[in-house]
Amino acid sequence: KELPGWPISLQQLNPYYDEVQREIGISTLLAHPSAAWIENGARKAGLRALPIPRAILSSDFRGRQACTYCGFCGSYGCEVGAKSSTLETFLRDARLTLRAGCRVTRLLAGDGRANGVLFLDEKRREQRAKARVVAVACSAIETARLLLASEVANSSGLLGKNLMFATLASGYGRFPRGGADPSDRLPFIDRAVEQPEGVILFQRPHPNPIFEAEKLAWNPSGPPAFGAELKRRMREFFHETRTLEWESFSDFAPHAGCEVSLDPEVKDPAGQPAARVRIGVHPDSLATSDKLAARAREVMAASGATKQGQTSDERVYTVLQCGTARMGVDAATSVVNPACEAHDVKGLYVADSSSFCSSGSAPFTFTIMANALRVGAGIIERMRKREL
Known about the structure:
- The protein is α+β, with helices and mostly antiparallel strands.
- 27% of the residues lie in helices and 23% in strands.
């Protein structure tokens, strides 16, 4: 059964995309010289490699230091604040009370409107906070779990349904090493190929040697490599060749086999019903991902890779989550309205990707941030008009 599409337009989001870029700081060129390999390979394959912006500072900005090219930003915090995390950007300048170490356990509502939350404080004592507006932004799995546990906003029966991620494929190419090169420490390739099926991102391997050794030990079937074989792989990776990696992201079709519900038995550390997550990938999504992966390998070969392989057998990028509290104009087929306010509960907003109607064909963090600003602006406007 075909689901309704997005009830908002790109034109409505565009001002907030611009605001995100102004607020967090977006890089200009950070690219490694190896980006030329990808550009040439893409051209030979009949494609075009595009520079991609990053939420990393390439020059000093608003009291934050420019990137020092340490390369560890994929798994760690940034020691100079160049990575445009929420902590370094929105939270740093926000006027709010941040209650660290606390955990909301239940959303409170009465007479059809939100009026507060119950939460455990840092000493695990139950507290109550009153509110005229409650905005939930716990990512798609935990937002659905919290709303389900609170028994709110589910008159449609769709809360927790239509969970989506991004369809994933990944691999690498080995290139001849031509001697010492001072540019080797530069971490970013910053090139991508866009296709109707999705996006292929090209990147340098993570510089953490333990992380890379664990990846080198991986086998697509059977136990991990060790001993002489692992040493051979490490020698090839660290000394004999240069490596470029790729990841492809494509649309994840919503369907009945992928959802969040409350586990009837398992409790989380706060004593709440744990989220029970069913992950299933539609066959069409897998076929699209396979087609995109074939194009990535074609670009790698045309770029001069002497050897190629997989970096993982994962088909789903579970870090990206969306869709469990779908937005729409019809309360029978959605959970929140186009302003991301719950159809059933006035003043209860969902400000994360739970409201998304599709995952799209590229990582959607930018859209999460833009839509959150749109939702926030709508709340402010309604507060001014005393509608909340």
